[in-house]
Amino acid sequence: MSAPPAPPLLLASTSAQRRAILQQLGIPFDVTAPRYVEHDPPAGDATALVSDHAREKARSVAEDADGRPVLGVDTTVVLGGRIYSKPENAGDAEEMLEQLAGKTHAVISGLCLLTPAWEIVEAEATLVTFRPLTPRELGLYVASGEWEGRAGGYAIQGLGAGLVERVEGDYLNVVGLPASLLVRLLAQRFAGVYGFG
Question: Which of 66, 74, 92, 170 is the catalytic position?
Answer without folding.
Answer: 74
